[in-house]
Amino acid sequence: MPQRCLPGVTHYPNGPWATQPARELTADLLEAGRHFTYLVRDRDTKFSEAFDAVFNAAGIDVLPTAVQTPRMNAIAERFVRTVRAECTDRILIAGERHLRVVLGEFVEHYNTGRSHQGHGIDLRAPHDDPNVVPFPAQANQIHRKQVLGGLINEYRAAA
Hints:
Layout: H1 15-32, E1 38-41, H2 49-57, E2 61-64, H3 74-86, H4 96-112, E3 142-147, E4 152-157
Parallel strand pairs: 1-2
Antiparallel strand pairs: 3-4
Helix pairs in contact: 1-2
């Protein structure tokens, strides 16, 4: 029996296939009133001139990574590695819809509940209020919030 793909999924991505999600993304961004200035992409052959034209038409400059510079896309690669290590490698994904729910919940946790290491962020999540101390020393009670069914735990001081 031949294996069937879900809509938007293919075993053999090519230029025309990659251009369609680009159109959908730019339409969603315009509808939501969101905009970004640059798209950094690698030099895979599926990112064709038509792919770049979709973003250029939306006022987004496409910047291909330089030739033979694997570290140039390091931030995206690091995020993918984090998602795999902390989330998808620990969950049996039942389908595309389940994957979207899991990734959505993980991204929410990543941006609001997960502490980050790095220069100048002092273990804060990207969307943390900069005027709040990350972990109060005088906390009498700590509340745990389970994310992804208990795969991940977030801790906050009780109010």
